[in-house]
Model the fold of this input.
Amino acid sequence: MSRPPSSFYNDLTGQIHVIGALVIRELHTRFGRNNIGYLWMIGEPLTFATVIGILHSFQGAHTGSDINPVPFGILGYTVFIIFRGIFSRADAILEGNAVLLYHRMISVLTMSIARTIIETAGCFSALVILLSASIILGYANLPARPLYLFAGIAWLVWLAFGLGMIVTASVYERPTLGRLIHPITYFTMPISGAFLMMDWLSGPFKTFMEWNPMALIFEYVRYGMFESAPDTYLDGSYITACCAIVTYIGLIAIKKARERVHLS
Done:
């Protein structure tokens, strides 16, 4: 017998409230209430992305009349650190919050969602601020195809969320493995496509990148931002399939990990 719609709605509302509470708790824990407090959620990625933008301002224009190096660098870095933040911080979700699983409505999944919301909100806010400043100062134009830009960012968040769940499950009670997560993100950056357009590549590396969902996601992001960006490598079906598979594996992984958590 199926559950009545009202019961589903109540459960959904309850989970949304739980996730909201977990977000507030994480913000308190990570940033505190003193000085700029929560603003550092935006300030941290904003600071690093500003430096990247300044460095790119000394470069010549990239291929395409409207692909200015400043928005190119800002876009690549801020979108990448959404992935880096979700992926690299996933290792501490269970270690630091296992006691919360005493509460029936809190699960590893809700904790992962809360962490993903925080990382996405902070980095996306930094992206909006820096792109707005670039547009005002004449370094960039308004996004040429906003829906493609937002779709690319959404796919990256989805991919990072799925991989993050795998990380959360894999490193629980394996501290040595957990120490490798942060170095992995540095090795990921060169092959992410954040600072490389597919048209610039050739040979086996290009073949590899054509099958790399993250690189294809960045092609979507740039196609959404720049009028002259090519649409040659846009493949939403493949990206969606990759994200769905990774998420499915992640859900199974955190379910198995939850069984290993012993509350006493």
